From TrEMBL:
It comes from Mesorhizobium sanjuanii. Pfam families: GFO_IDH_MocA. This is Galactose 1-dehydrogenase. Residues 2-51 form the Gfo/Idh/MocA-like oxidoreductase N-terminal domain. InterPro entries: Gfo/Idh/MocA-like_OxRdtase_N, Gfo/Idh/MocA_oxidrdct_glycsds, NAD(P)-bd_dom_sf. One of its GO terms (molecular function) is nucleotide binding.
Amino acid sequence: SLCMPPQYRYDAARTALAAKKHVFLEKPPGATVSEVEDLKTLAAANGVSLFASWHSRYAPAVEAARAFLGSAKIKSAAINWKEDVRRWHPNQEWIWAPGGFGVFDPGINALSIATHILPAMFITSAVLDFPENRASPVAAHVAFRTSDGLPVTMELDWLQTGPQSWDIVAETDKGQMVLSGGGTKLVVDGKVIHDEPEAEYPMLYQRFAEIVRAGTSDVDLAPLQHVADAFMLGKRNVVEAFFD
């Protein structure tokens, strides 16, 4: 299992795969889409398994949310992922460096859930707020749409103090769905459908064991691709300097 900052993960993963070791990549799986594609190719060539793990997808209420949305007509969706960087990543300079993702480090958790429970979507616009003294954004405002025109918005903020917000809200013909707590609680029209403590990592390692036994890999790059698209398409907005 590799969990160093993404800027340094490729070389470590390539060394392990070349030595015919199975590799579990913590999120995000790499600093770029193309380097993870290269790792997929190397894993296949060496007959070993590569797992790009998205831990938030294994939160306890995610599958129930996916099942509900699969049975409903979605009208719109909104992702709100707001937390306090000083609490979760204090004095971690790598996360502000190029390739460190900034606010997309937690934001990619939201995207890993959204790409699992919502129809396929693509970014239409984005504004990324960069502190004047940092190389990665502290906030992001992103608009998506699906091929059918379904609007999806995403608000990321790394300066929220007090209660933290990790929510996906969908308006549907069966009522409002709220998936909160990073995927631990599901409420539909005010009724609690699912609510239990996080238990992601046992399920992640169970999945890793499954693909190793099957001789396959599991490398879904959709969340990482959305982050890359946001940086490609996003307007850069310079905001006040950030200091820990």
